[in-house]
Specification:
Order of helices and strands: HHHHEHEHEHEHEH
Largest sheet: 5 strands, parallel
Mean pLDDT: 93
Strand order of the largest sheet: 2-1-3-4-5
Strand content: 5-15%
Bound molecules: CO-5-methoxybenzimidazolylcobamide
Shape: globular
Amino acid sequence: MELLQQISDQLEKGDTVKVAELTSQAIEQKLDTRIILDNGLIAGMAVVGKKFKAHDIFLPDVLLAARAMYAGLDLLKPLMIEEGIPTIGKVVIGTVQGDLHDIGKNLVGIMLKGAGFEVIDLGNDVTPEKFIDTAITEQADVIGLSALLTTTMPTMKKVVELAKERGIHGKTRIIIGGAPLSSEYAGDIGADAYCFDGIKAVECVKGFVGIN
Ligand code: B1M
């Protein structure tokens, strides 16, 4: 079977060791870095995303696939930097101030990375100032806010307000996600979109940077 297809298949199975081995082989065979990324790793993750959406696989499978994706990405990263392969867009992501829940946010970050975006992960308990300062410095396309607590949801509004004050509202798009949130809430606070999960976040961010 073709090497890139094998990478995709093993990533889908979440086999970290095999993905690393096969990615190393592809590098040794001097396959184009972007092709290994697109037709091997990202192709595998796309299948995982579709299966997850269809409830054919579950969260632990996605996490295993994500770990395998990292094993391949770690090997490609130095080459991508060396070759200056551009990412398709930049996303600053974090869990809002006062909130320590970061599993969902990490998953969303992994899926965005898997889709080819550069993700700057600020972690959890992130202040509105930190989100906006980083987005400005890094010239981010999108800010991704996560909250799992009803008590921390209002902090998202502060981020949107600060984005307005600092003149980036509408230029840098803001997406929100997390169990207690909704599209209605996104509309109420002036965020650009509510994303139910990582798949939706990838769809939204792709839409914002003009990729379908
Ligand atoms: Co806490 N917790 N927790 N907790 N915790 C919840 C959220 C809770 C619903 C449990 C409950 O009461 N049934 C409840 C919130 C109630 C509410 O506000 N309505 C709660 C509470 C009350 C608390 C504490 C206050 C408990 C206490 O101390 N008394 C406390 C708060 C601490 C704080 O943050 N300041 C607390 C603490 C913790 C732990 C530290 C123990 C731990 C977090 C560990 C960690 O994240 N590193 C924890 C956990 C694990 C949970 C539950 C059990 C699981 C959350 C989780 O990781 N889910 C949770 C109950 C539950 O959800 N069933 C609960 C798996 C994850 C993949 O899903 O995070 O929803 P989720 O992410 C999804 C989507 O929401 C979405 O995509 C993800 C993937 O599908 N999404 C985004 C998330 N962020 C997104 C961003 C996007 C787009 C999509 O774009 C940017």
